[in-house]
Design brief:
The complex is a heterodimer. By secondary structure, chain A is α/β, with parallel strands linked by helices. Chain A has 13 helices and 9 strands. In chain A, the strands form 2 sheets. Chain A has a 7-stranded mixed β-sheet, sandwiched between helices. A two-stranded antiparallel ribbon of chain A has the order 6-7. In chain B, α9 crosses α10. Chain B folds into 2 domains: 180 residues, Thiamin diphosphate (ThDP)-binding fold, Pyr/PP domains (Rossmann fold), CATH 3.40.50.970; 128 residues, Rossmann fold. Chain B has a 7-stranded mixed β-sheet, with helices on both faces. In chain B, strands 9-11-10-13-14 form a 5-stranded mixed β-sheet, sandwiched between helices. The chains are: A alpha/beta, B alpha/beta. The complex binds thiamine diphosphate and magnesium ion.
Chain lengths: 314, 324
């Protein structure tokens, strides 16, 4: 992986989430949002090996997935701010940003896109294309029945899809120790799907596993599964205080923060200076500030927006 | 040549597969077995396992696969063995298939057909007999088609396959074996159009699918007594063809709605509400309905008959409207 590029990408996603949090506080974003702070490295690393033609299906915690899939930041932010300049005219919001041009679809039903990811992959195989589908899900979503059905189906049908389970140890307040009868990876193995566990935010391992699995899918249609054990620094959604989490556990994982660890590596190896870091972050903040102010300043009055249009395609 | 309803379905599938390489069929036991009711028999031999795909029992995963394949450029036809099992795939319909077109302003299309066998009358019992169409009618963005006549089934199935939206195509089990001389059947019938299949002036019956047959029988019996009944076969249930309904209501003024779905919050309830909203002042009496009673469907034939919208029950309600 290109360390510096990945570092910048992770920084960008984190700053994006921070900006969004600020916009919430200012009353400029409504609804809810699930920040991915602490988990940004996962889509940042995986997307290195994807092309525009590859599909990504995302979850409620999908801002990082969308940014890494190269969605236009202004259109993406405008969507979250409920503006007509957004990808979905503000109709989707944080959990349902979708763009077929970017081959990106998100949905707020946990794990609900997994059966559909199979179908996207099936179509690629049917058309003899070597495009890949990456399907993100959480440890909580993994427990849904349709995910089990879909893993079995992907396996028996040899579907060219990479499932990426972001195991942040909690489904809202429910810890995996309570919600899972056994390790996720063991269940996946039982479906005869090649899988790999990436523990403790090990971004180096994720990089090599993702690279290998995606290149294998392109060579021969078959499913793969990566479980990444990670942690969210923030609450489940914007108002959650994490009262159910152990402080020691939080401390352990904060020290494993991929952004901080990579930053340290870059400093030690002198690939970057402290000043360089400030410059990168400053530039990102500037960009996000100017984009958001631009969106805010635009007249957001919607004229003649037809809310009953496009229920059907003619 | 004489053909039955199931053969006409197979012909529509066959011709669609032949014409468009992006069409494929997926479902449980549809290949070698030919589907529970034989509608796909022989297609595996003709088109091979790439396009005629047997799956494990996983209704949600199969419907989801259909949705994804549809989004990614194919035209999937999913077969769900019994309508009772559609419930297992509701999330994929309510929260996925039906929302993408709207939320993306028409950018994402889901040209998916789900063929499903509905209907009681065969003693299959509570979990293999239901016609639970109403919950699906509740979903914005879905189309629902339920042909009765042999002359409609092929043309409507072909139109469903060509449609760019998710279409639930409902086949009543009791219709599969109905055999008729095929002559001049339309090759393609646009969705969303009901048809007045019997003209009359004393009572209008609005119905669909297998219940059309029972209503026709009742109308014959009334004819002998000098009472003429008009019958609308909805053919497409969603979107509802209110135009055709209204024009008959305005002319006749007395209405009975008959369906094999449950009564509470049923399709008939929706039709009655819409008539009240749109042409209340054309009515001469209260609208009535005959539906399946709101109970799980019993298996024993005598008990099953008691809960279904049989000709006897239709006749009774028809009389009370006419005498009102
Ligand atoms: C099917 C379904 N049930 C419940 C919810 C409400 N909900 C939203 S996110 C969430 C927890 C999801 O946990 P996980 O999949 O581990 O993702 P994470 O939030 O940890 O990223 C729940 C219960 C939902 N969105 N979908
Ligand atoms: Mg989780």
């Amino acid at each position: 992986m290109d360390d510096l590029k990945i570092y910048e990408e992770i920084c960008f996603i984190r700053e994006f989430e921070n900006k969004l949090s600020e916009l919430f506080k200012r009353g400029l974003v409504g609804g809810t949002a699930h920040f991915c702070i602490g988990q940004e490295f996962i889509p940042a690393i995986i997307s290195q090996y994807l092309t525009d033609e590859d599909f990504v299906t995302s979850t409620h915690r999908g801002h990082g997935h969308a940014i890494s899939k190269r969605l236009d930041i202004k259109k993406f932010l405008a969507e979250l701010m409920g503006k007509s300049a957004g990808y979905n005219h503000g109709m989707g919001g944080s959990q349902h940003v979708s763009s077929i041009k970017q081959n990106f679809i998100a949905n707020g039903v946990s794990g609900g896109m997994i059966p559909i990811a199979n179908g996207l992959a099936f179509a690629n195989k049917y058309k003899n294309s070597n495009n890949v589908v990456v399907a993100f899900l959480g440890d909580g979503g993994f427990n849904e029945g349709y995910v089990s059905e879909s893993l079995n189906l992907a396996s028996v049908m040899d579907l060219p899809v990479l499932f990426v389970c972001e195991n942040n140890h909690y489904a809202m307040s429910t810890p995996t120790s309570v919600g899972h009868s056994s390790e996720i990876i063991g269940k996946v193995k039982a479906y005869n799907i090649q899988c790999e566990l990436v523990d403790e935010n090990d971004f180096r391992k994720l990089d090599s596993v993702a690279k290998e699995f995606i290149s294998q899918i392109r060579k021969k249609p078959q499913p793969f599964f990566i479980e990444v054990k990670t942690y969210r620094h923030c609450g489940h959604s914007k108002n959650d205080q994490n009262l159910y989490r152990d402080k020691e556990e939080e401390k352990f994982w904060m020290e494993k923060d991929a952004l901080a660890c990579l930053e340290k590596e870059l400093l030690v190896s002198k690939k970057i200076t402290g000043e360089g870091i400030q410059k990168i972050k400053g530039k990102i903040r500037e960009k996000l500030d100017s984009l958001s102010e631009e969106i805010i300043s635009r007249n957001s009055e919607r004229e003649d927006f037809e809310v009953s249009a496009n229920i059907y395609k003619d | 040549m004489k053909k039955n309803y199931a053969q006409l379905i197979k012909e529509a599938l066959d011709e669609s597969l032949e014409k468009d390489p992006s069409v494929f069929i997926i479902g449980e036991d549809i290949g070698k077995y030919g589907g529970c009711f034989g509608a796909t028999r022989g297609l595996l031999e003709k088109y091979g396992p790439k396009r005629i795909i047997d799956t494990p029992m996983s209704e949600q995963a199969i419907v989801g696969l259909g949705i994804g394949a549809a989004i990614n450029g194919l035209k999937p036809i999913v077969e769900i063995m019994f309508m009772d099992f559609m419930t297992l795939a509701y999330d994929q319909l309510f929260n996925h298939a039906s929302i993408f077109c709207y939320l993306t302003h028409g950018e994402v299309n889901v040209p998916l057909v789900i063929r499903v066998a509905a209907g009681a009358g065969r003693g299959y019992g509570a979990t293999h007999s239901k016609s639970i169409i109403a919950p699906l009618m509740h979903i914005p963005g879905i189309k629902i088609v339920a042909p009765y006549r042999n002359s409609d089934v092929k043309g409507l199935l072909k139109a469903s396959i060509e449609d760019k939206n998710p279409v639930i195509f409902i086949e009543n089990k009791n219709l599969y074996a109905i055999e008729e001389e095929e002559k001049g059947y339309p090759e393609f019938i646009p969705l969303g159009k009901a048809e007045v299949i019997r003209q009359g002036k004393d009572l209008l019956i609005i119905t669909y699918s297998k219940s059309v047959k029972d209503c026709l029988d009742v109308a014959e019996a009334f004819e002998k007594k000098g009472i003429s009944i008009e019958i609308i076969d909805l053919r497409t249930i969603k979107p509802l063809d209110m135009q055709t309904i209204k024009s008959s209501v305005k002319r006749i003024g007395k209405v009975l709605v008959v369906e094999e779905g449950y009564s509470e919050c049923g399709i008939s309830a929706e039709i009655i509400a819409r008539i009240n909203e749109e042409c209340f002042y054309s009515l001469d009496s209260a609208i009535r309905r005959v539906c399946t009673m709101d109970v799980p469907i019993p298996s024993a034939p005598d008990l099953e008959r008691k809960v279904l919208p049989t000709a006897e029950r239709i006749e009774k309600e028809a009389w009370s409207i006419i005498n009102e």
